[in-house]
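The methods section describes the discrete structure representation at length, but only in general terms. Since the whole study asks how a given chain folds, the encoding of that fold should be made plain. An entry of this sort, consisting of the sequence and the corresponding backbone structure tokens, reads as follows:

. . .
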Amino acid sequence: MAIFLVLALGAGVVACGSGSDDSDSTGSTGSSKAAAEIDGVTWTLLNIASHGAATSLPNTVEPPTLKFDDGQVEVFGGCNNGSGSAKIGETTIDFGPIAMTKKSCGNLPDQIETYVSKVLRGDVPYELSQGNLVVGGKLTSLIYTKD
């Protein structure tokens, strides 16, 4: 399925992140400078990076969003909306269960939402890189930009 999405979203492959971290995360869990930069901002999905390749979303798809606010997260996954708890630490975000609506929006939005929902589970690594929020691990990362 990952290969199909990369091909289906073939709107362009871009380099993802330089590995540099624009944040100075020196605070404690939930109170770091990075957490302050993330909280209260609506983040819009720009790219999905899977198996070393980053793919831009086609402009025909409504992009998923995240908004963190005081220990909670509002999620639009590409089709459904939801919310749950999210504790922002220095290097990880601990996502609690996210209650989502359950409609279907078609093949491509549903596939994108599957990637989003798989990444936003449990204790997930993140970094702020070049003004973007990169959430995820080695196999799949979601690259969000500020709205």
Observations:
- The two ends are 29 Å apart (CA to CA).
